[in-house]
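Memo to structure team: turn this sequence into structure tokens by end of day. - J.P.
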Amino acid sequence: MSFAVPLPNHLKPRREKVFGDGRPLPLDRNAKVRVMTRARALLRRTEKGKHYGAITAKALAVLEVLLWGFHNCRSGLCFPSYESIAEKAGCARSTVGEAIKALEDAGLLSWVNRITRIRERCSDLFGKFGTRSRVIRISNGYQFHDPQPAKRPEGLDNSSKSESPSGTSIQEFFSLTTPPDDPLSAALFRLGQSCGAIPKAVA
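Reply from structure team:
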């Protein structure tokens, strides 16, 4: 039987503190569904006499609110306050903190401390008023972990992540060595050759 000895506070790794938006990570709808599916699997009871698994039903509710209520698919921004999460999830603020810790321990999300710099009025020892700069903590920035990220084809490390190549169909002509029959395509072909974008055929 092993006993885990908790580390003292000064030896524990410190939470990252960042200015601005945190560490946003865009996720599409499919990725969010995979995260939720993984979370529901972790909700299942794994031990006899226990009503839940690695996470509780409240933790699942908090994750659902974060993913579908606050996370922006395109920008990846997600930094609601505990109060906003608690209101949407229908739980106490303290429950939100416990749920986020459980979700992080389960590998479903991670977060950073967001900080900002403010200026405030103050007086010095002689009673003169001035301003000073102070750094304060604001809401956390959340990042969700897709359990099955999209795999990129081998040999395409520097290519686009999209499976559908970008561009127009006219780009198919750039690999030809003879001008196309279509007048517009032929004109573009000659323009590409004159600019050096299309290699000239070797006689």
